[in-house]
């Protein structure tokens, strides 16, 4: 089991920045991948950025060059630094963790944090 607690969302003007945090209830060394997803009203949840235990990183094309995912192993925390925010980045952002155990993989989700970018 993994509990994820997100923080750092809020209201910001276009061009501004925010940093989201996701604190895990266990060592992130034991988690195979962690990432951030977002879901805007009326849209499907989409991957924003993901970080594997092997330090492989993926970004959605829409955020490349503006968002950075990172982790602090000592704090069991993953961050999403968001720069040059746009109104289309407005969404609920969810932290995700994937734990692989043998042949099965389990997904865990945080409660979500709202990011609103005003124009």
Describe this structure in words.
This protein is an all-beta fold and 119 residues long. It is 0% helix and 56% strand. The chain contains no helices and eleven strands. The protein has strands at residues 4-7, 10-13, 18-24, 33-39, 46-52, 57-59, 67-72, 77-82, 91-101, 104-109, 113-118. Strands 2, 4, 5, 6, 9, 10 and 11 form a seven-stranded mixed sheet that branches. A hairpin with a 4-residue loop joins strand 5 and strand 6.
Count up the helices.
Answer: 0
Structural class: mainly beta
**Helix and strand sequence:** EEEEEEEEEEE
Query: Major beta sheet, specifics?
Result: 7 strands, mixed
Calculate Rg over CA atoms. 14 Å
CA distance, first residue to last residue: 40 Å
> Helix proportion of residues, in percent?
under 10%
Low-confidence stretches: none
Shape: globular
What is the number of beta strands? 11
Q: Approximately how much beta-strand content do the residues carry?
A: over 45%
Return the average pLDDT rounded to an integer.
95
Précis, in short:
This protein is 0% helix and 56% strand. It is mainly beta.
What keyword list fits this structure?
7-stranded mixed beta sheet; 119 residues; single chain; 11 strands; 4-stranded antiparallel beta sheet; mainly beta; 0% helix
Helix and strand arrangement:
Blueprint: E1 4-7, E2 10-13, E3 18-24, E4 33-39, E5 46-52, E6 57-59, E7 67-72, E8 77-82, E9 91-101, E10 104-109, E11 113-118
Parallel strand pairs: 2-11
Antiparallel strand pairs: 1-3, 3-8, 4-5, 4-9, 5-6, 7-8, 9-10, 9-11
């Amino acid at each position: 089991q993994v509990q994820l607690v997100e923080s750092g969302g809020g209201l910001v003007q276009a061009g501004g920045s925010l940093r989201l945090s996701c604190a895990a209830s266990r060592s992130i060394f034991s988690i195979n991948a962690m990432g951030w997803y977002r879901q805007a009203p009326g849209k499907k949840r989409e991957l924003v950025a993901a970080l594997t235990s092997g330090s492989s990183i993926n970004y959605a094309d829409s955020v490349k060059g503006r968002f950075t995912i990172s982790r602090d192993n000592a704090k069991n925390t993953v961050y999403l630094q968001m720069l040059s925010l746009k109104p289309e980045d407005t969404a609920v952002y969810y932290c995700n963790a994937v734990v692989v155990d043998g042949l099965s993989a389990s997904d865990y989700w945080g409660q979500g944090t709202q990011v609103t970018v005003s124009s």
